[in-house]
Amino acid sequence: MALVLVRLKLALQRRALGGRGIAQRIGFALGWLVALVLGFSVGAVVAEFSARLPAPGDLALLIVLSLVFVGWVVTPILMPGSADQMADPERLALYPLTPRQQVTGLLLAGLLAPTALFAFLTALGGAFTADAAVGVRLTVVGCAVVFTVLCLTASRATQALLGGIANSRRGRDLVVLVTGVIGLGIYLLTQDIHRLTESLGAMQQPSAESALSWLPPGAVGQAMISAQNGQWGDVAVRLAVAIASVGLLLLLWAWGIRRFASSGHGGFRHSTAKTRSSVAMSLTPFPVDAARPSVLTAAMSQQLRYYLFRSPRAFQSMALSLVLAGFVGHNMSSYGLVAESAAFALMAIALHAPNLFAYDDKGFTYLLITGGPWRPVLIGKALAGPLIVIPVMFAVLFVEAGLADGWSQLLVAVVVGVSVVAVAVGLGAFVSIWEPQNRIERTGGRRRALLGLAVEFVLLFAIMFAGVLAWLLLGGPVSATLLTLACLIISVLLGWVLVRAAGSRLARDPFRIEALLRP
Amino acid sequence: MTPDRATTATADVAGGAARSGGNAVEATGLVKTFGTARAVDGVDLAIPRESFYGIAGPNGAGKTTMIRLLTGLLRPDTGNAVIDGVRVWPHPDEAKQRLGYVPDNPVLFDRLTGTEMLEFAGLLRGMEPAVIHHRSQELLRILDMEGASDRVIADYSLGMTKRIGLAAALLHSPRVLVMDEPFGSLDPVNTQVMEEMLQRYRTGGGTVVFSSHVMDVVERLCDRVVVIERGRVRAEGTVADLAHGRSLQQAFVDLVGGRDLQEGELGWLSSSSG
After folding, report:
1. CB-CB: which of B95, B109, B130 is closest to A366?
2. CB interface of A with B, residues 298-317, below 8 Å
3. Which is nearest to B18 in space by CA: B110, B120, B86?
4. Which of A112, A202, A347, A487 shows a CA-CA span of 20 to 30 A to A469?
5. Which of A263-272, A371-380, B265-274 has the highest mean pLDDT?
6. Nearest Cα to A459, choosing from A501, A497, A427, A490?
7. What is the 3 state secondary structure string of A306-369?
8. Phi, psi of A438, rounded to the nearest 5 degrees
9. For residues A355 and A449, is the Cβ–Cβ distance under 8 A?
10. Smallest CA–CA separation between B99 and chain A, in Å?
11. What are phi and psi of B83, to 5 degrees?
């Protein structure tokens, strides 16, 4: 059965380009050639680096192997269409194959791919070092095989867990969130590559090396390093870690396949038992569905759906503001993590908080028809943005703290970021009902909407300035922890009061807003 | 707030249903002016409970404006409306709890799916999730929208949008259902289904008010009809009263004045002309 899947794999590869004839054959050969050249080059460079500068070279090997491994894992998440379709449990569920047969066959078939060749050659670099003994070379070859299998099983396990996820609402929502966080993380990593190389050169991060060497891909790398140093006991331990990880991943992969076979969908759908509500609502995505369904959660869910791909304009606005926030925040990093956090929060939330009804188009009239409870509607919409921005901000700050060794500032940075978001949301709610603009049909006072945005920024800067001033004045007599806590409480309260007041004002005259938004 | 609780909480808003007697909807001296144009000019109406009430009139007669005044979407210059015992002004939101309204071109959140839209509508009305789920499933099935319930409304045809609009308007089981041109863009099967639904709704104690240009639908369904022309009530009564033995279409044309083509006009449309 495994051979059947191997043959299937080869056939799929040949037809991967979708066409017949010379172009297809060239494409097929080119894929392997690129993998061969690239894998050999990366492996050789790392090996050479390791031979000339042993200390940073070892860390470079660990980092390269970890990055290759992460690439294998995130590919099925970030680009589901590019993952190996043969390993999709939905397709193989049509055939009478046990999970064990599937895993074995797909594992062997998966090794016959340019990507696997690239992973193997990258890890194999150490085997070519000039003065290595035969035993060391053979060990390195074995490690490279383990590394390739590790990458493959991790990727396939991820794919099996994501299998049929399009049918699962919760799964889709989770993938969107994970994708966003990973995407932003990668962006920030690339932004900080110079800092990474600096620390490699200066060998300032032995703790990072130690941590990496115990993670599965790093353990393989460390086994190679230990083999070259003659520390065979360590080789055995590190390889045991890697092989155990492969075993765990194989079990996870088989579990994903079994779960699909028994339920017909991926691993994220709820069973029939529900948490709080006896009925699952399609409207409310994760994590809003943890709360009791209400007007507030309905409005929040509706707004979240705009941001998460339903409204291209809303998604574009959110994505752009996050990228912009990442860029501006990163450029503030020289002033410390707290300044970076404040800048990120400001740019991420302040651009779309002041136009909460922008994507409702004719829908606002529906609210008028129902006489919708205005205040909870506004609060729900206002809270949707922070639900995306705050987790992304956490991720960014976490990565930045790791890169700049700013762990000591992390808590204060997070609190300051959340505080800025809270105040911006409150001010934004007020601007939203002062001069709204329909961004779908481009109606509403554009000039005044821009003025509203400017007013929001000015007020936000003024409040932030007052906060910084208070911090500096009180910094001596009052403890930093107390100040941080007070900053958070005051900001959240201010934001809450502003949003509620805006809701009350909206309830007094929704007709004015409707007239401005009407297409 | 659930509709039931809304009923209790505002029972005395207009002295309760008793004040409006047996009428589900009452309008007194409604006037609305846009600039110099008087769209609605002193309309008085009394729409009995559990009735099918038709609003007819030529294009631009002021039907939609009057409906918007009745449903609390527009504030009248003078006069007022009462829905199920609740004065629309100054209590438009209370009145809307008793109303379901389907505009000519339904205004919905077109980036939500059909199911999500109904859930949103139900939560806005303060309904329990289990009730929302049960009712929306039933409405989607009856309106033949189950297959499209997971598609976003932006991808719906006008007929499908109207059906979802109707489902959203009926979900909270309102006392009065107001519809603007409900049967346009519906195919014959869906027209028949909607008619049956509305009949059942009326049997259950609901009142249906709708505007239409299609006189045979008005004639077939309605107990009473009002003909509006230039913002004023031109005629009001039972279908039989207005028809006087003619078809309602003919009676309407006679009432508002028909326009006959003169002989020779549009002769160039003839295929034999050069």
Report:
1. B109
2. 298, 301-302, 305-306, 310-311
3. B86
4. A347
5. A371-380
6. A427
7. HHHHHCHHHHHHHHHHHHHHHHHHHHCHHHCHHHHHHHHHHHHHHCCCCCCCCCCCCHHHHHHH
8. -80, 105
9. yes
10. 8
11. -115, 120
